[in-house]
Amino acid sequence: MYYLSKSDLLQLGVKWEEMIEKIRETVYTLKDGDFAQPIKPYLRYRDLTNRIIAMPAFVGGKVSFSGIKWIASFPDNIKKNIPRANSVTILNEADTGIPACIINTSHVSAVRTAAVTGLVVKEYLQRNQQKKLSVGIIGFGPIGQQHLDMVSTLLGDRLDYVNIYDLNPLDNALVPAHLKEKVNIVKTWEEAFENADILMTCTVSKKPYINKVPKKGSLQLNISLRDYVPEFINYTNHIVVDDWEEVCRENTDIEVMHKTQGLTKEGTLSLVDIICEERLRHTGTEEVVMFNPMGMAVFDIATAVYFYEKAKADGVGTVLAD
After folding, report:
1. What is the pTM of this model?
2. What does pLDDT average to over the chain?
3. How many CA atoms lie within 13 A of 3 on its CB side?
4. Is residue 86 classed as helix, strand or coil in its secondary structure?
5. Looking at the predicted structure, is the pLDDT value of residue 48 above 90?
6. CATH, range 130-292
7. How many CB atoms lie within 10 A of CB 82?
8. Disulfide engineering: 159 pairs with which of 8, 155, 213, 259, CB 3.0-4.6 Å?
């Protein structure tokens, strides 16, 4: 059985185009029904703002692995100078159930999150033919940093500038050297939001605050799920979710919109709808799209398998004794 540490994963690096294609393959596996994914349970105790989530899944198709991610999210960890999220993933051979690999997956989780977002960004780039696009990022922890790397890679020369806002003072060293001329550290979330063609929330916000009209034709990527006031539904033309049953709970913006604004599953689009069925392909240039990903275990397993197979091919990692 393999073990992959964070240093192993960093050594392997990330090729965003490859990783996003792995997510695309998995979306088509969802369309084909060749998967299993129970609703993930939340373990809470003592301080109920903390949670540990079990995320089991089987992914068929080209992935053909089962597994589980066990991820803890303790928001106050940042006050102790330790990561908010920590996780491990176990991969099992699909046909035998034999454990094949254990991965320290905090880094993998961040990559998975950005890769799923990246798939939606690629779909947006096919529809939006502007020569230059602006990006706003609210929250610049590990998730925000991965999203900057991903979106700058996908946009390439089309990237005009990025405005980044975080509640905490930002270390300029977190911005890659090749992007410093295009990145602005701004003082308010409004500055990151107002002129963004692509807006990403990567916060640990407990209550919504985004209450302004978005830029026409923009892509609103609600990655942290608790940043938009429920009335924001009136500013969007299309609301996309990864999985309605997963995302419409735990006080997400989607659940609040469901309870207070009458949003229903039928009023949303899924990743299968927009990727496999191309339901957004003819969207008007001024229409606003909002993506709300709760995080699906199938994508975690697919991402973990990507790193596992790459590690074996490159001779990276540790083989554990039985």
Report:
1. 0.94
2. 96
3. 6
4. strand
5. yes
6. 3.40.50.720
7. 10
8. 155
The answer, yes or no, to whether residue 172 has pLDDT greater than 90, is no
Q: Which among 194, 174, 193, 192 has a CA at the least distance from the CA of 184?
A: 192
- pLDDT of 225 above 90: yes
Q: Where are the domains of the chain?
A: 2-109+297-319, 130-292
Q: How far apart are CA 157 and CA 39, in angstroms?
A: 40
CATH class of 2-109+297-319: alpha beta
Assign 3-state DSSP to the chain and report helix, strand, coil percentages, each to 5: 40, 25, 35
Q: Could you write out the three-class secondary structure of 111-152?
A: HHHHHHHHHHHHHHHHHCCCCCEEEEEECCCHHHHHHHHHHH
Residue 78, pLDDT above cutoff 90: no
CA-CA distance, 27 to 113, in Å (whole number)? 14
> Which pLDDT does position 250 carry in this prediction?
92
Fold matches, 2-109+297-319 and 130-292: no
Q: Which two tokens stand for residue 99?
A: 């454990």
Q: What is the mean pLDDT of residues 249-254?
A: 96
Helix (H) or strand (E) holding 6: helix 6-12
DSSP 215: P
